[in-house]
Design a protein that fits this description.
This protein is of the alpha/beta class. It has 17 helices and 17 strands. The chain folds into two domains: 199 residues, Rossmann fold; 223 residues, Rossmann fold, CATH 3.40.50.300. It has a seven-stranded parallel β-sheet, with helices on both faces. A seven-stranded parallel β-sheet has the order 13-14-12-15-16-8-17, with helices on both faces. The longest helix has 19 residues.
Length: 465
């Protein structure tokens, strides 16, 4: 079975004329009806590898609900749905995104209209299945896809996946796609097939390469108590190789009355004509561990007249989507994110990835830095290394199979802005204190406690029926 001319035309409009390695390997067995496990580095076109076979088979027997795609993050769910919508336009494809942070009644009504493809996070789709009855079901699902399978096949999602595997039809095709082959994924690949089924087709990366060759990776040794000053200097003086990617216009620092909070407004003059203009950095994602840190750094950079927006789990879904839209459109050049933004997001021309905190798990490093140097383009990743990070650096270097190169910043120049940055730190902490961030933290603690109770006793080693 081949791909229909309508779908080939949709690919051509996206300037996709030749398959990537993962697409060439996985599309044929999926079209033949086999289960599939696909492993490829981030940015290699995994979504198209499972979307095309789904759309091809849907075109032969169109009905809803035909396919369920599960992802670990809300942002990735919206991105996958967008790609399905573009590819499936010739088929008048109907999609639905089912994630937390959106009204459940509206989502239930949308599912009642029988979309062809549902893209969901496990928790919300299970909540909807348990709270509604009769309006819709998943009994005719033909395809189940676990995207970022290494993250989904953990104890965090075990209760929801077990519930779904028990109610989904056994005759479906199941596909797992991941940039990281964990033990859980390998166990599924090696497991004996169920009666009447073949073993899944497994595609592994031909070379064990965690990061692409076009990515330059550095570290900066930074005393932890003045990291903010180093970050400010780095964003104001990014590597010369990234200057051509600058898109956002400079900010004019407008004088304010004594005691009032400083505001940065766009300058009407060109940067070269305006001595008070602050040159904005090229598109940059700053990763940190905690939502509170992301919120703090966003306030800090805004106070320093660098346009920044946040992406983390304490924001509403509307706020999260707005932040991504502003960053994608280059209205805001800096996105400060926790690891919710590290997986799968495809954003063009991200010049820099900055690790404010090194991740606890080295595999998350590869997902973070994979947001730049995509589709054969170049990119830089810079990790701030404090006196507490030696062990984490060694783990990262062991995983990627190479040493990070040291990037020296002129300490004298950095310290020139120390007073300015210290003032901004105080203002950022005050703004965080005065916001409703504390309330959001309390709400999250309650949800996390409930979630821990659900997970307790559930088997984290999920197997596919």
């Amino acid at each position: 079975m081949g791909i229909s001319s309508a779908l080939v035309g949709a690919l051509s409009k996206l300037s996709i004329n030749a398959p990537t390695e993962i697409q060439a390997a996985c599309i044929p067995p999926l079209l033949q009806g086999r289960d599939c496990i696909g492993n490829a580095k981030t940015g290699s076109g995994k979504t198209i590898a499972f979307a095309l076979p789904i759309l091809q088979k849907l075109s032969l027997d169109p009905y809803g609900i035909f396919a369920l795609v599960l992802t670990p993050t809300r942002e990735l769910a919206f991105q996958i749905a967008e790609q399905f919508a573009v590819l499936g336009a010739p088929l008048s494809l109907r999609t639905a995104v089912v994630v937390g942070g959106i009204d459940m009644m509206a989502q239930a009504l949308e599912l009642g209209n029988r979309p062809h493809v549902v893209v969901a996070t496990p928790g919300r789709i299970v909540d909807l299945l348990r709270s509604t009855s009769g309006e819709w079901d998943l009994s005719r699902i033909k395809f189940l896809v676990l995207d970022e399978a290494d993250r989904l096949l953990t104890s965090s999602f075990a209760p929801e996946l077990s519930y779904l595997f028990n109610i989904l039809p056994k005759e479906r095709q199941t596909s797992l796609f991941t940039a990281t082959l964990t033990d859980a994924v390998e166990r599924i690949a090696d497991a004996s097939p169920k009666p009447g089924k073949q073993k899944p087709f497994v595609h592994r990366m031909t070379a064990r390469v965690e990061t692409v060759e076009t990515l330059k990776q550095y570290y900066i040794l930074v005393p932890s108590h003045i990291r903010e000053a180093y970050l400010y200097h780095f964003l104001c003086n990014p590597p010369e190789s990234t200057h051509h990617l600058r898109r956002a216009p400079p900010e004019k620092v407008k004088p304010t009355k004594k005691g009032s909070k400083a505001k940065a407004r766009p300058s009407k003059k060109k940067a070269s004509e305006d001595p008070d203009a602050i040159e904005q950095p090229p598109p940059t994602i700053i990763f940190c561990m905690r939502p509170r840190t992301a919120a703090y750094l966003t306030h800090l950079l805004q106070t320093l007249h660098i346009r920044a927006t946040a992406l983390h789990s304490r924001l509403t879904q509307r706020e999260r989507l707005s932040s991504l839209a502003l960053f994608r459109a280059s209205v805001v050049p800096v996105l400060v994110s926790t690891d919710v933004g590290a997986r799968g997001l495809d954003i063009e021309d991200v010049a820099l990835v900055v690790n404010w905190d090194l991740p606890a798990e080295s595999e998350e490093y590869t997902h973070r830095v994979g947001r730049t140097a995509r589709a054969g383009k170049g990119g830089l990743a810079v990790s701030f290394v404090t006196e507490r990070d030696e062990e984490r650096v060694l783990k990262v270097e062991e995983r990627i199979g190479t040493k990070l190169a040291e990037l020296d910043l002129p300490e004298g120049k950095v310290l020139e802005q120390l007073n300015t940055v210290a003032t901004a730190k105080r203002l950022a902490n005050m703004e965080l204190h005065d916001s409703d961030f504390g309330k959001r933290e309390e709400i999250h603690k309650i949800k996390r406690a409930k979630r821990a109770a659900d997970v307790q006793g559930a088997d984290g080693d999920v197997t596919l029926p």
